[in-house]
Amino acid sequence: MLNEKIRQLRRERGMTQKELARRLGVSPSAVGMYEQGRRAPDSALLPRLASVLECTTDELLGTGYSGDVGDVIDSFARTLERQPGLMFNGAPISRSDREKLANAIRVAAALSSPEKHAAGR
Description:
Blueprint: H1 2-12, H2 17-24, H3 28-36, H4 46-52, H5 57-61, H6 69-82, E1 87-88, E2 91-92, H7 95-111, H8 114-119
């Protein structure tokens, strides 16, 4: 949970609640409430909180970024397929073209995979 992650990262960085509050520009009681789960940081504060705690917002929120290129490509391709209103060179891109682009990205990733390089040696 977010409250536990804030507490964990703050302690790992050797910060007090007061120091974290000062660096975020919030009151120490706000940080205490974040860590107790009685209040959540405003979404606008999350990037700054991540920066101060030297992590990503994904790590803070526990969205599970694995760092694996294949996972990143799959996530990007899924986003392309679902994202409404995408434009290419100023013109709307059709759903069919979004799917083609996502598939092209997956094919390019498969062609450049480590297994492909190992097999070619």
